[in-house]
Amino acid sequence: MNHHTRVPVTDIIDEHARPPFRERLGTLMRSSRHADFAVTRIRIAGIDLADEEIAGLVRCRVLVAHLNADTLAEAADAGMLRPEHRRNLGVLLRFVDSGRLQLRAAGLGAWVPDFSVLRGDRNALLLGAHYFGRPYPTVGPSFTCITDDDALVRDAARRFEELWDEARDVLPAIRGTLELALAVGTAR
Fold it and tell me: Which is higher by pLDDT, 182 or 1?
């Protein structure tokens, strides 16, 4: 065996995995300069980014299949919730204002399953369920495959670019909602 041959690391993560999906995602984000996420839907109020997870990101692009009024209302309502929800929304708003976060909605376009491409010290592709605080809402297991196989990462990055180019910018709507949520929470 050639000792210089790089063997891809591949793993499957489910709702019982240790460390859990959220922790692995945070670790990957800390060592990445670029992160591209293609998720069917997003729960803004459920995003719990830490400043140290996003500090090294030069660019983070999030592509959602659909952004609807319920998503925006849920984020606005989160401003009136517990202090940790307000902290999470504050981190997200600072990230938006940094200019390093971009958000687009695909509208009629969609994909299955969700996927992410992270590039930096280590490149990785995550393919499957994406969630923060709790496993993906399903009755059975929520599987996510993670791999650092260069060809797979490259192919997923190419497909992300195709989807991204067809999508529309929705960051101003999200920014306004975050600002409103934090203002409402402060006025309470």
Answer: 182
Q: Superfamily for 10-187?
A: Endonuclease Chain A (3.30.870.10)
The string of DSSP letters for 48-103 reads: ---HHHHTT-SEEEEEES---HHHHHHHHHHTTS-HHHHHHHHHHHHHHHTT-EEE
* Per-residue pLDDT tens digits for 48-90: 889 999 999 999 999 998 776 555 556 556 555 667 777 888 8
What is the model's pTM? 0.85
The answer to whether 174 and 103 have CB atoms below 8 angstroms apart is yes
Two structure tokens written together for 2: 């050639």
* Edge-to-edge order in the sheet of strand 168-169: 10-13, 144-147, 124-128, 115-120, 32-39, 59-64, 101-105, 168-169
**Which residues are within 8 A (CB) of 175 and not within 5 positions of it... i.e. 6 or more apart?**
93, 96, 97
So where are the chain's domains? 10-187
Which residues, 6 or more positions from 130, have their beta carbon under 8 angstroms from its beta carbon? Answer: 21, 25, 37, 39, 114, 116, 136, 144
* Chain-centre distance for alpha carbon 109: 18
Q: What's 45's DSSP letter?
A: G
Quick check: 57 and 33 in contact, CB under 8 A?
yes
Lookup result for tokens 């307000």: 86
